[in-house]
Write a structure and sequence with these properties.
mainly alpha; 78% helix
Length: 224
Amino acid sequence: MNWLLVVAWGGLVGVDASSFPQAMFSRPLVAATVTGLIFGRPAEGAVIGIVLELASLVVLPIGASRYPEAGTGAVAAAGAYMGAASSGPSPVLLLLAVTFGLVWERVGTASVDVLRRWNERAVAARIAAGELSDRQLDRMYLAAVVLDVIRGAVVSGAGVVGGMLLLGGIASFWSLEPGTTFGVLAVASAAFLGAALSIFGGWTERRLWFTLGVLCGSLLLLAR
């Protein structure tokens, strides 16, 4: 039942990105955390979601720009991790899941491109035949939304299955110390956040808050 819920959730995440309702639950942080919640492990899902969210902050979905579909990638990454780390938390699998999620986002992007081109050809064919009434246009829109749900579900489900097998295979012969793994994730997160800093006004406008954040993080580390 958990896997069916993940596939259904992936379909909702996929359609939310642009078709409907654009309620922001396709953001990686939400998508991965809810996936973890389905398996009763929201904290691990949130870790994956936070890193993928930081990576996606620099991407601005404006106009006709092409950008990775981070939502379904996050669902696939979190679901694959839950399946591969069924016995309990695994820092190595966390790192591998984040990496897999970043790659799988490109698969989601390709699927969006294929669906949109199909929609474009379908509408063009109706126009050429002079058969595109307002009612038919409404039906075609609803059909496109349903297809987008199916696309998101398929991309997420395939990502979960493929990622689970891939993560399990790699982790069986590749290991890292937990401290090293979390260090890599921390450095990657800092790099993603630094790349997105300009979106929030850059260093000049945000140097005070950035410095305070570094100091607070350092104090937390020292307090451990």
